[in-house]
Amino acid sequence: MRSSERDFVGALEKGLAVIEAFDASEPRLTLSEVAHKTGLTRAAARRYLLTLARLRYAESDGRLFSLTPRVLRLGYAYLSASPLPKLAQPVLESIGEKTQEVASISILEGNEIVFVARSAKRRIMSASNDVGTRRPAYCTSMGRVLLASRPDAEVERLLRISRPRKFTPKTKTGHRELLREIGKVRAQGYALNDEELEIGLRTIAVPVLDSRGEVSLAMSVSLHSARMSAAQMARKILPLLQSASKTLSAIL
Length: 252
Description:
There is one protein chain. The protein has 252 residues and is of the alpha+beta class. A six-stranded antiparallel sheet has the order 6-5-4-9-8-7, sandwiched between helices. A three-stranded antiparallel sheet has the order 1-3-2. Helix content is 45%, strand content 20%. The protein folds into two domains: 5-71, Orthogonal Bundle (Arc Repressor Mutant, subunit A), CATH 1.10.10.10; 82-251, Beta-Lactamase. Helix 2 (31-38) packs across helix 3 and helix 6 (141-148) packs across helix 8. Strand 4 (102-109) and strand 5 form a beta hairpin. It starts with 9 loop residues before the first helix and ends with a helix.
């Protein structure tokens, strides 16, 4: 279906931007903070927040606003309508069972990845990457796999708008440094992230091809760095991930 500017509803875009202003690091925001994060005026941000509150998607204590569990309905609509989580879950559980670690699948949305499926937790992990969690693409293994599948011009644009920052002393943030890393991922066919998002968290990811032969998803295994070195992950877990990726690609 083709669309034009006449069909675009700006108010809906702004309302969704207000919802997306809240995340795990900032679950409660003031009116001024919402206005700053969305680029709206204070008056406009107030109207959207009060509308969301009236519809029971948000609540306020008089100063701070936060989302309510009702927002989960929006995410559940995708999960219930999309066949992907149901198709991917058995594959993720299989690799999770073989590795005794957490396996995940994500998509690229703008300059972030969004977790859309995850195996059951078999060990305690400090990072909370449940379904629906968003992470910066530039500093995650799945993000780099997905970026590596994009044209150079798009990668350049996404890195520019990401404004990379250090999550740990190991996080790569330099523009050229990230381009080299993404080029390396593109050449070798997988990404290994060594404590760049969180100290103690090591992940390895591979691309998943869709029915058109294009990279639409990334699949990863995450573990605590004390349990396995980066070299061991490449030797022991990478072949399992690559096999699981082919299995999932065949049914997409």
